[in-house]
């Protein structure tokens, strides 16, 4: 019998050996309900169509399209530079990974060499992006279990990191700081000192979060054994990032396919083995602490001045030779990639975005919801860390 979603609970007799359930709504035995589209334990608007037997989920169907959509075709109708404000919307809490993958793909196709200084700044931006995204996730995971105070702690910490993004780019969410050839400018004067001060201020709250949450009897009772991901699913469904590493599979693009300045930094992918909500939460907390350490390493090695952008022609008249490429990076949720085809014109011929949310929010979530208690649906979804616009991209 398949074990979907719950590691330590018997499946209902209605569940067949292939994990499906024969549901006859006319029998009056089952109830059809909807969760969402108002952020149902997920960052973005997505709806789950749930079929219940009592308070247990027998079937789940994902419905998206309530937010941004159609990015890939829109990008084919815009000049290369005009797409940077657009790609940010594909993953609102993590716009910088879209900026990097898109810019790096164009640079590879055009044969552009990015200055050393810009590579360090890009690496810094991506780790800052990882940190603020994880902090929002840590807030959402405990919030789904009703833990209000540690949830607010993490939102405060995230706001401190967003303050630094505002210091850097003038914007808190959509930074558009990475452009073809490098970045917009060198780090502002005094930025490094302020970033170190921010890290010193948030680390004590991160330590408090660990003590309050992971030693809490209620959190342990509800999170352990919940949302189990079978390691056999990892390759079959293309599961990446913390959802794979929580099952003991050390997938991390920063190590598997190194880019930017990650080969020069000291770190190892964090893994857990229990593969449930508790394990993924603890893994992401450890990832946050690793990002803090990586940012400190990067600040030490980033030059204070130097070339920050390659010389390129006018962006409004930039034409890229015909070709195709795929560039990927490790975002907070796993592998993020851009496949781009060019035809020698000033527009992309084809763009395809590989975001982790398609697999995690649709295929994986629908399997894991079976036999899940409706009270745990939101918490299970949060543990998968998905952003719906990537699905309807």
Task: Give a short synopsis of this structure.
This protein is 42% helix and 14% strand. It is of the alpha+beta class.
- The fraction of residues in strands falls at 5-15%
CATH architecture of the largest domain: Orthogonal Bundle
Derived structural class: alpha+beta
User: What is the name of the CATH superfamily of the largest domain?
Assistant: Cytochrome-c3 Hydrogenase, chain B
Residue share in helices?
40-55%
Largest sheet: 3 strands, antiparallel
> What is the count of β-strands?
10
What are the secondary-structure elements, in order, as H or E? EEEEHHHHHEEHHEHHHHEEEHH
What does this structure look like?
- The chain has 393 residues and is of the alpha+beta class.
- The chain has two domains: 5-63, no CATH class; 71-390, Cytochrome-c3 Hydrogenase, chain B, CATH 1.10.645.10.
- Helices cover 42% and strands 14% of the residues.
- It has helices spanning 71-75, 84-87, 95-110, 116-144, 148-169, 191-214, 217-223, 233-237, 242-245, 253-256, 277-301, 357-369, 377-384; strands spanning 5-6, 31-35, 47-53, 56-63, 178-179, 182-183, 226-228, 323-331, 334-342, 348-354.
- The chain has a three-stranded antiparallel beta sheet with strand order 2-3-4.
